Amino acid sequence: MIRNTTKKQKMGWVILILYMIGVAYFMFFAESFDRLDVRQEYHYNLVLFKEIKRFFIYREQLGMKAFFLNIFGNMIGFMPFGFFLPVVSRRSRKWYNTVLLSFIFSLCIEVAQLILRVGSFDVDDMVLNTIGGALGFIAYRFVQKYRRRRMNGKRRT
User: Fold this and answer.
1) Is 65 exposed, middle or buried (0-12, 13-18, 19+ CB in 10 A)?
2) What is the CB neighbour count within 10 angstroms for residue 95?
3) What is the pLDDT of residues 3-29, one digit of tens each?
4) Are the beta carbons of 83 and 140 closer than 8 angstroms?
5) Cα torsion for 107, 18, 85, 118, to the nearest 10°?
6) What is the Cα–Cα distance from 156 to 2, expressed in whole angstroms?
7) In the chain, what are the domain boundaries?
């Protein structure tokens, strides 16, 4: 696997692994997200779109920061995963593989949160994270399209 990789793929692996370490830190240890407060009662959500709907309806009372962090933060947080996965893996250059792996990675994080009672298990987070992975894949495709056009333009001159 490592012998047949390009320098860009190796750099992609480094970035992807650092990204995943960063996600683990924010999900389990970040004090700014009250992850280390063991006095909190543990909550979980198994009803699809319940928390998304709640954050949307009560965004004024909860504050725009909480709304933005919950809805867009989950998507933006997973965009690098969807972007770098096709860089490091040829199989992930098919959109459905990247989306599936984004879902699986998100599921692993949510199950770990459930078992460790850190953060909260939320099916809506899995939906938003998977959408973020898909958006990252779309960004990857745009970058690839731009790179191909640029490379084709240089060859003609």
Assistant:
1) exposed
2) 16
3) 677 888 899 999 999 999 998 888 877
4) yes
5) 10
6) 34
7) 8-35+46-149
